[in-house]
Amino acid sequence: MEFYLLPLLAFLSLTLTAGDSDLPSEIYWNSVLPNTPMPQAVKNSLRPGVSKGGVSVSTGHEEKPGYVGVTKAKKPIFFYRYAATEDQLHAHPSVALFFLEKDMRLGTKMNLDFMKNTNEATFLPHQVATSIPFSSDKLPEILDQLSVKPESVEAETIKNTIIDCDRPGIKGEEKYCATSLESMIDFSTSKLGNKGVKAVSTEVENKSQTLYRIAAGVEKMGGDVSVVCHKMEYAYAVFYCHKIAATRAYMVPLVGRDGAKAKAVALCHTNTKEWNPKHLAFQLLKVKPGVPICHFLTQDQIIWVVSK
Ligand SMILES: *[C@@H]1O[C@H](CO)[C@@H](O)[C@H](O)[C@H]1NC(C)=O
Fold it and tell me: How do strand 65-67 and strand 301-306 relate by DSSP bridges?
């Protein structure tokens, strides 16, 4: 059992008492990606206890990460095989979920809702994460290890995330669910290399602000291949990462009506011919499959690009 307890205890003493010391995963980041600053979305998933919400707690079994506050699983909008439901169409009629690439220019006004993101689960130390099973056929064992009751909402959320992670990607999509920061780094660099890699996320000063206009300095990032990682609802930080092609990524500076700044990552998909013709984006923007569709990444998504 020692091999199990040691990393967890080291983790706890680092995060709870010496918040400023480097965690092993930060050291790993700096060794693999010495010239890549850590995006805010990664920093937010590193240290528990900084904010309220889904925070890891001790369960009394020292070696098991317990959990409170898993919410009902949301389908990330990138699951583009789904057609829009009536609910989705009417939920936020004024919020710009999607936009056209031609509108990504100085002065365009947009209603954007950056509040939604409340997933505050944090990464487990790599050794702990790899010692907990993560596949549909191990569900009872997973629930037991995480001290989650089988009939609970939390169990349902855990099950849904594992099913999404187990499902093969569409059309040979290269995907991977990273259960630790080290695994996310390894997957992303295995797809993109580690030279000139940049990892970025959307950063917002005032989350309550919804009225924005695009400021000067829209910047295209990387080539047309990137890796995008979406934070899943789970007992600890798990990111669904997939390699995507036929996309253009931009860093878009925004200014809120109150003057608050945001730097939002926009992703424009150029191969939308293959999307479901009833996709929400086509209905909202009143365009046909084939037209490039852009959307902003939420604050808990990470994009990895390579700049030449
Ligand atoms: C944030 O935005 C909201 C909504 O516009 C506004 O009421 C509030 O004053 C802003 N907060 C700050 C600190 O500027």
Answer: unpaired
Contact residues of ligand 1, CB 6 A cut-off: 206, 208-209, 258, 260
Give the chain's radius of gyration (CA, Å): 20
22: its two tokens: 């480097």
User: What secondary structure letter does DSSP report for 114?
Assistant: -
How many structural domains compose the chain?
1
Q: Check if the beta carbon of residue 253 is closer than 8 Å to that of residue 216.
A: yes
Distance 258 CA to ligand 1 centre (A): 6
* Burial bucket for residue 100 (CB in 10 Å: 0-12, 13-18, 19+): middle
What is the C-alpha separation between 122 and 56, in angstroms, rounded?
Answer: 7
Residue length of the chain = 308
Work out the average pLDDT over 245-270. Answer: 96
Please tell me the distance from the alpha carbon of residue 121 to that of residue 232, in angstroms, as a whole number: 9
Domain range holding 128? 2-71+79-306
Distances (CA, A) of 170 to 81, 94, 118, 238, 239: 9, 31, 28, 20, 18
Atom of ligand 1 nearest to the CA of 260: 14
Residue 9 has pLDDT above 60, yes or no: no
From the CA of 257, give the closest atom in ligand 1. Answer: 5
Q: How many CB atoms lie within 10 A of CB 253?
A: 16
User: How do residues 189-219 score in pLDDT, each as one tens digit?
Assistant: 999 998 899 999 999 999 999 999 999 999 9
Pairing mode, if any, of strands 109-111 and 211-214? Answer: antiparallel
Distance 256 CA to ligand 1 centre (A): 9
**pTM confidence score:** 0.81
Digit-coded pLDDT (tens) for 61-98: 333 344 433 444 444 434 333 444 445 555 555 667 89
